[in-house]
Amino acid sequence: MLLKFSEHKNIATVCLNRPEVHNAFNNELIAELTQVFSELSLRKDIRAIVLRGQGKSFCAGADLQMMQATKQFSIQQNQQDANALFSMFEAIAECPLPIIGVVHGAAFGGALGLISVCDVVICEEKTKVCFSEVKLGLVPAVISGFVLKKSSYGKVAPWMLSGKMMTAQDCFLLGLVHEIVPESQLQAKLQDWLAVFQECGPEAVRETKKLIAKIGDLNWTEVRQKSVLAISEKRVGVEGQEGLQSFLEKRPPSWRNS
Q1: Looking at 24-33, 64-73, 167-176, 185-194, which range is the least confident one?
Q2: Which helix (H) or strand (E) holds 20?
Q3: Among 44, 58, 183, 224, which one has the highest count of C-beta atoms within 10 angstroms of its own C-beta?
Q4: pLDDT of residue 235
Q5: Residue that finishes a domain, picked among 173, 197, 221
Q6: Residue 148 shares a structural domain with residue 237
Q7: Cα separations (Å) of 209 from 83, 118, 195?
Q8: Final residue of a domain: which of 175, 197, 219?
């Protein structure tokens, strides 16, 4: 297994486990990530997912051996390879659970795709980040849609076009990173976020993620319909009723004890 997976108190942790190559993607790792997030999407008992990397780096992008192999691929084989990578990012992006990325060391190329599909990103202050594809004569194509979903053309274009090295602060300004902390505070900051998600209604969090992920692609009439329906259904649902009742009774809602 190229992933380390663990669960504790309704929190799942997915850790890239190829530290000898700075957790670079190969076909096996891509397949494992796709599978684990597809399976976690069906879990009703998990409150949040932590995505991080083992060793000195979060992720160095594509594995050198994998890139070397693609030199001999036909265009059809390259399309199949790229489709598998897209499916991995898509499986993570469409997971209904909140995903917290913990980034450290280095995050190059495809690692920016992983950062883009996380809902919360905590970044160690000395992390080096780069859209490295153009330096290799390639294009950040597969990750582009996911990156632009989170940022914008005007913000990311200089970095994507140049392959210039970025700091954690640069990534914060792009909207790709939400918290920047010293290495010694990474775990404490992660625990802060996990504690916040433990206080929230788990169904409400899933429905909120589903709503905000899609609503920007709708016309205004559809936005009205979707938003009105979403809140109406939650107000009459079991979790919504419990949340409102516990607020009125000035007590913790039932999910905080689970």
Answers
A1: 64-73
A2: none
A3: 58
A4: 83
A5: 197
A6: no
A7: 25, 11, 18
A8: 197
- Tokens for 252, please give them: 């913790």
CATH number for the domain spanning 182: value is 3.90.226.10
pLDDT in tens, 62-119: 887 877 777 787 888 888 888 999 999 999 999 999 999 999 999 999 999 999 999 9
The candidate with the shortest Cα–Cα distance to 200, out of 234, 154, 151, is 234
Nearest to 119 by CA among 50, 167, 61: 50
Residues 40 and 86 in one domain: yes
DSSP at 135: G
The tokens of 235 are what? 């107000």
Q: Tell me whether residue 28 is exposed, middle or buried, using C-beta atoms within 10 angstroms of its C-beta: 0 to 12, 13 to 18, 19 or more.
A: middle
Query: pTM, whole model, 2 decimals?
Result: 0.93
CA gap 94, 169 in Å, rounded: 27
- Does 221 lie in the same domain as 193? no
**Separation between Cα atoms, residue 85 and residue 92, nearest integer Å:** 11
On the question of pLDDT at 233 being above 70, the answer is: yes
Domain of 49 in residue numbering reads as: 3-197
Give the C-alpha distances (Å, rounded to integers) separating 219 from 58, 64, 216, 224. 37, 43, 8, 9
**Can you tell me the distance from the alpha carbon of 38 to that of 33, in angstroms, rounded to the nearest whole number?**
8
Is 54 a residue whose pLDDT tops 90?
yes
- The model's confidence at residue 169, banded by pLDDT at 50, 70 and 90, is very high
CA-to-CA dists, residue 254 to 19, 146, 240, 251, angstroms: 40, 35, 11, 9
CA dihedral (70, 73, 75, 77) positive or negative:
negative
Check whether residue 69 and residue 106 sit in a common domain: yes
Total domains in the fold of the chain: 2
